[in-house]
Amino acid sequence: MSSLKELCDGVPLEPLPPRRSRDESVPHAPVRTPNLTREEQRLALQNALRYFPAHVHGTLAEEFGQELRDYGHIYMYRFRPDINMRAYPISDYPCVTRQAAAIMHMIMNNLDPRVAQFPHELVTYGGNGQVLSNWVQFWLVMHYLSIMKEDQTLVLYSGHPMGLFPSRVEAPRLIITNGMMVPNYSSREMYEKLFALGVTMYGQMTAGSYCYIGPQGIVHGTTLTVLNAGRRHLGTSDLAGKVFVSSGLGGMSGAQAKAAVISGCVGVIAEVSKEALEKRHKQGWVVDVCFNLDDVIARIRHARQHKITTSIGYHGNIVHLWERLVYELDSTGDLLVDLGTDQTSCHNPFLGGYYPVQLTYEESREMMHSDPVRFKNLVQESLCRQIAAINRLTEKDKGMYFFDYGNAFLLESSRAGADVLKEGSSNSLGPQFRYPSYVQHIMGDIFSLGFGPFRWVCTSAEASDLECTDDIAASVLEDIINKGVTEKVKLQYDDNIRWIKEAGRHNMVVGSQARILYSDQTGRIAIALAFNDAVRTGKLKGPVVISRDHHDVSGTDSPFRETSNIYDGSTFCADMSVQNAIGDSFRGATWVALHNGGGVGWGEVTNGGFGLVLDGTNDADERAKCVLSWDVCNGVARRCWSGNANAKETIQQAMNSDPKLKVTLPNEVNDPDLLDRVLNDL
What we know:
Low-confidence stretches: none
């Protein structure tokens, strides 16, 4: 068993660790099919061997070649450390700086088998969301972090540690880029090839930026989404007896069942992987498990009739579930579902992100690499069947309300030829779907108010510290309300105060001692300063890392998700997320990340994030104020300029509070006929 000190000593070479094959007792990433030429295979091996001195090349070349042939990527399993992979208390890490130790804490949490989807392939969530590209990179990163001083910055290129570079104390300790491409070459096929070559990787959002906090990270957002969907489209905040249907119980989607219970409804979630379903059931995130549709339907009817709050995990394909719900509607007249979405990993539909209804789970795992063309055809046929069933259930005025949850489900369905486009829509600025993105009709107003997923991690690894921060956060938000806020803002604060006060009861910690809530600029800054003071006074036993999901007000440019409600034609522009990462870096973030891909897929989104260590110093106070102000105002200003009234009101309030903030405000065209008159005269 390795120790943390051994992990920090560098790549073990004398002697080499024993060769390892795949451990079949844990779930593994699907086999990849990069279709490399012989010259490209040669290059992939050469790229892998450059991490090692020449005298071990003969030993390693053959096994790396076998990994490339068998799995489509060189993971370097031999170098997977023999350690209990988890987030250790920050004081346990042998580092020169506490900032570096905090980053180590976050990296090891992302690889914790309780947290990570495919831990041995360094995949945290989403089927291909890598922390790093191979295990030798892990050893190198840990070594560099252990020797880093406060005037050095570690630079990572898509998992590869380029090295420690002289820097400034005020600068970030770590800069991460993942998957950044020359735009014309950012295709799915190019990704598969370059990942196999070991020169790029898909970091999802918080996998490759080391800010993932387990499924809790999305359960809060899913809870708010379900609650607001009920308010807006069912006309009620009481979801007792209402049925929410979706798919996926993996890394991110695993939050859905828990969110349904917290929201007070009946959650029915289909999952094809028995391993994933049983994992969530054992963790208490799924209440009941069903293995046949008759049982599922019976439980839905019982829960609806008696208004029982519960979650049902169905081991089977979501298409079968949707088609059975159509059968119940046609044969009995009973619509058994009120809210619906999908959380399969459709950003990666042909390599394990979506399993077609025509095949079993095991058949799919085999065919996706043995006959990828046929597998792709079956996936697209399955998507068309799924959309056909959903369309039937949403037909009537009082039909199911279905929304896209930002996983590229509607985008891939449209590419498959499914009947999912809005009638009369034009593709001049991208497809327009008959079903809204949850951002457009549910969460968009929240982002425009500056509210988004603010999160923190107690690096002491003590549950008591997390409980203390929960109390601090709730108290801070209550104080802000008492000082006076608008009714729209108060509604959001009230939801989040309720959430944070109940968070401990719902046992949501998986991995690090972490929490998430949605807050605006005012709340985030006030909470961060209160946490830092608690570290300073010893109320907390260790530093706190503050961060956020990239899925936030400013962090992501994604035309089919975070920026789907931008209507000035700039939805395909990525200035906001790039500016955000750059701005965070010189305003005081401990580390920053910028990614191509995340959520809806490679080439479909640009996003970034940050981490900031609150260590109780006055310097941390100033960093938190500066970073968090920019990190929210940037996106609110962009949404204001696009014409969003809530964002305009929010940014004006921010300017009133801070005389240094000067934002260009849009002027409306008051005469709606002016534009047509001018165009008719041309």
